[in-house]
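Thread title: Can someone regenerate the structure for this chain?

I was given the following input by a collaborator and told the matching structure tokens would be attached. They weren't. Posting the sequence so someone can regenerate them.
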Amino acid sequence: MPAGQKRRLSAVLAAALALTACAGTPLSGREIVRAAFFGPDSVLLLLADESAPEGETAYKTALGRGDTPARALQTAAAGLDGRVFYGLMDVVGLPADCDRDTAAQIGTLLYSAGKPAPELAVFLLHGDETPRNAAQVYEELLALETGGAVHCGLQTLFAQEDVCAVPVRQESGYGFALLPKTGEPALFDAAPAAQLAAVLCGQADRLDVTFADIHCTADAEVTVLPQRERTDVQLHLRHLALKSLSGEASAPEAALRAELLAAFAALCQTAQAQNSDPLRLRFWTAVKYGPGTAPAPPRLVILPE
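Best answer:
Regenerated them for you:
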């Protein structure tokens, strides 16, 4: 289901549940969380303001501090009047200095305690510990998820033992971060590299980038084909459109190929330095050749269609 339809469905569900009882408590008597922004020792909850005039959308915030995400969340909830409800939460923001273990801790905490909606989106915050303009950041992240066609679900935070891959909020478009269990985190902030990383990590299905005076759009799909001597990572680009912004660019498809190959090489070098496997090459190799089989060196195969 497209993200826009999911948002509309959530709004309809909120209105419907507000008129009924849920676990014995009307939703209108609960504190409805729409977003949670985590800092190193804090969490800022963005909640629907039920006191707003009918037909108007308004928000309020609750700040909690603690030496763990669980304690910070508990402190924030303790300062609210009603019972906290996470079922309609859309967005989670991870702290800018987050590592893989902290991301997994936050993901597991919210998944087990909050039971948020399946379409919840996760982003790494870039900058302030907790955003002062939480409502604006929330709306920006919803727009970024829809417009950028990128989605990192809550389960992604603890799905892999060695790394957590997550999109990053930034001023223009989105970046992409690899948070390893060991080693240094890596940020890809340029659009071609960030979008390619998101596609290869299964969090995006579209490229919409500008590079070297060329604008590229394409629907993207990835297939991993392990072999004994190499692992082919096939990038299928459907409905590929390349446009020279000045009208002077020559061989745009060759330029795109060079840009993507360079970005792929940087991603593989980063993963090797981190001893991480964000593309899950070990999994696909084990499926074909059996557990414990090391993947062969990867090669990006670009297939315009």
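DSSP finds eight helices and 15 strands in the chain.
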